[in-house]
Amino acid sequence: MTHSVVHLLGVPFAIIAGTGAGVFALLSWGIFRDSPFGTAIALLSVGMVALTMYHTMLLVVEPASPVLDVLRSAANTIVAIFIGLLILRHRQLRRDRSGGGVA
Question: What pTM does this model have?
Fold first, then answer.
């Protein structure tokens, strides 16, 4: 697969931007670890790393490789778990708030 110069410059940019976003997500998780959304933030940081790896590999290898299918599947699974966890936490907080106001 032939690549243009702009295409090849996108690979280090994707790695640097994804690494920075992952570090910021981990720092946020360190701050919000004891909050109800601490686990969701941890899943978000893992998902960001998986998506960064997927997009970098997409720029480097051909789009029809099995490795990309596995990375895409892992990233989609992490996003689905993240959304499900946020829904569960939202319902739990709503239930605690409504139960706490009655007593």
Answer: 0.56
